Amino acid sequence: MARLTVALTGDQPTDFIESLAANDLVDRILLNDQGSEQGAQLSERARSKSHFLEADPFTGSGLSRLLDSSKTDYLLLIMPGEQVRLGQRALERFLATAEDSGAGLIYSDFRDDLGSEARDHPLIDYRPGSIRDNFDFGPALLISKRAAETALARHGSIDERIRAAGLYDLRLKLSIDSDLLRIPEPLYIRVPSDLRATGVRQFDYVDPGRRDYQIEMEDIATAHLKRTGAYLAPEFEGLEAYEQNFPVRASIIIPVRNRQRTIKEAVLSALSQRTAFDFNVLVVDNHSTDRTTEILDGLAREHPKLIHIKPDRTDLGIGGCWNEAVYSSHCGELAVQLDSDDLYKDEHTLEKIAAKFDEKPYAMVIGSYTIVNFSLQEIPPGLIDHREWTRENGRNNALRINGLGAPRAFYVPVLRRLCFPNVSYGEDYAVALQVSRRYEIGRIYESIYFARRWEGNSDAALPLDTANRYDAYKDHLRSVEIMARKRINRQESGGAGEQGSRGAGGSGRGVWGGRN
User: Fold this and answer.
1) At what angle do helices 211-228 and 166-177 cross, to 10 degrees?
2) Residue 195: predicted pLDDT
3) DSSP assignment of 162-220, as one string?
4) Is residue 362 over pLDDT 80?
5) Cβ contacts of 80 within 8 Å, gap of 6 or more
C-alpha cells in the first residue's frame, strides 16, 4: 500500500503524534510550530519521522512548500483548531479508497467527542456547486500528490501572494479534473472547538473584520469560474415592457405559520409604511395551529390594506407561500419581503426600495439589515450590508456565499416567469441566482430592516442532519446555476447573435417600459 505524509497544521497531543509515528504507512510527520517544546517530548522513533513546517500552510507559498515537502503519494492534512483521534485502521481506509477511486481529495465522516458521549457527525457529498469557501470537509483531508501536481500544472500554480486561501485555491483546481470524494464512514473522533449554534455561525462570512479574507476568497472563486466557463461578465439583459395591470405598485409579502408572538408587530410594521403610491400587505397564513390566524383575522378587519390569504394546499413551504402571493390577483408590480418575526427599520423602508427600482431597470433590489435581539437591541455582528457585492462581480461571487441579504424585493413580471421552489430554506437564494444570471440587481447599503435573533428563529440552532440537508440543497442550486451559466457562455461563443440578444454591455434601457 502507498505511504503518506501527515501534516499537523495545528496543535495535537503527543500521544497522537506517537500513534502516527508507530504506523508503518506514515513516512513523515510535519509539525506546525517550530518553536514548540513538544519535539523534545517525543520518542526517538517519532522524532526521526518529525519535521517542522517552515511556513503557514494556508498561504500560497506555505502550501507550495508543504506539497514539495511531501515525498509520498498522499498528504494527510489535519486542520488547525481541533484535535482528532484516528479510528481503527483509519489510514488504511483513507489510502485504500484513494487508490481504488483515483480521487484527488478524500474526506470522511467522523464522531464528535462531547465528553459524555461520542456522537456521529456525517458530512455531505461534494458537488460541482460546492464552491463556497466554507464547505465542511472535517478536520482530516487526504490529498493525492499526483492529482495536485497535475491540477497545478494544468490550471496554474498557487499564487505566493495568497495569505489565507491557499487550500481553497488548490481544492477548486483539483475539482476541475478530479473527484473530491467523501467516505461515509466515521474514520476518526474530533474534539470540537467551535460549539456555537448555527444561527451564530451563519454570519461569519459577512464579518467586517474579515473583509480582506473575503476579497481573497472572491478573487479565487472568480478565477475558478473563469477557468471552468461559468463566469458571467457584467453585461445584463434589459427588462421587457410587460402589458400587465397591477392593483397596487407594491405588495409586502409575509409568509407565516405559528408566529402568534411576532406576527402582529410584523404586520403593523408593514402597514405603517408611508409612500407616495398605493401598496398592500399580503400575509400567507400557512395553516397556523396557534393564535396566528385569529390575530390576522382581527387585523384584516381593521386594515383594508391587509389581505389575509389562506391557501387551500397543505403542502406548502415558504417558497410555496410566496408563489401563492405573487400569482394572486392582489399582488402589485413589486413584491417585497418581510419575515413574520422581523420588522422594517422605520416607515420609509418601502419607499426607499421603490425608489431604488426607479433608478435603473432592476429585476431585484436587496437591502441591508441589522441583527437585533427580541427587544430590538443591536447584537453582533450588527449591520449586514453585503458590501462584497459589486455590479462588476456580484453575480459571480453569489455562487461562493450562502446568501445575498435582506430585505429582498422583486419586479413581479420577472418573478412570475421564475417562481419559487416549494421549500422552506434557500427558496430566496434559488430565485436570486436565477435573476442575477440575466438581470442587474440593485443594492441598498444602509440598514432598512431589523432581523430579530431569538429562540423561535427557524435557523437558530439547527440539528446537524437539517444543517446538512440545507447545505446540500444550496450546493445543488449552485450546481444547476453553474450548468446554466456554462450553457449561456457556450451558446454565446457560437455566434454573435446570442450575445447581441442579451444586450451586451448595456443596461437595456432601450426596452425599458417604465415602472409607474
Assistant:
1) 20
2) 61
3) -SS-HHHHHHHHHHHHS-EEEEEEEEEEEE-S----HHHHTTGGG-GGGHHHHHHHHHH
4) yes
5) 9, 10, 11, 32
Question: Distance between CA 12 and CA 99 in Å, rounded?
Answer: 27
289 CB-side CA count, 13 A: 1
The CATH superfamily assigned to 4-195 is Spore Coat Polysaccharide Biosynthesis Protein SpsA; Chain A (3.90.550.10)
Q: Are 383 and 345 in contact (CB under 8 A)?
A: no
Alpha-carbon distance of 7 to 104, in angstroms, equals 17
Domain boundaries, the chain: 4-195, 250-457
Instruction: Give whole-number Cα distances, 382 to 206, 217, 313, 370, 372, in Å.
Output: 10, 22, 38, 5, 7
In this prediction, residues 462-480 reach a mean pLDDT of 96
Contact 38, 14 (CB under 8 A): yes
Phi then psi dihedrals of residue 357, to 5 deg: -60, -30
Cα gap 485→216, rounded to integer Å = 23
Residue pair 140/95 in contact (Cβ under 8 Å)? The answer is no
Calpha distance 417→420 (Å, rounded): 10
In angstroms, the CA 344 to CA 211 distance is 27
Cα 487 to Cα 36, 260, 493: the distances in Å are: 53, 46, 10
Task: Pull the grid cell for residue 312.
Answer: 387551500
Residue 177: pLDDT band (50, 70, 90) is very high
Which residues contact residue 96 at a Cβ distance below 8 angstroms, ignoring those fewer than 6 apart?
1
In three-state secondary structure terms, 119 is: strand
Looking at 112-116, 268-272, 425-429, which range is the least confident one?
A: 112-116
Q: What is the pTM of this model?
A: 0.90
Cβ–Cβ under 8 Å, residues 206 and 131: no
Written out in words, the top-level CATH class of the domain with range 250-457 is alpha beta
pLDDT surpasses 80 at 508: no
d(CA 228, CA 299): 53
| 4-195 and 250-457: identical CATH topology | yes
Question: Which range is least confidently modeled, 9-18, 59-68, 406-415, 491-500?
Answer: 491-500
Phi first, then psi: what are they for 95, rounded to 5°?
-70, -40
Q: How confident is the model at residue 198 (pLDDT cuts 50, 70, 90)?
A: low
How many C-alpha atoms does 444 have within 13 Å on its Cβ side?
Answer: 27
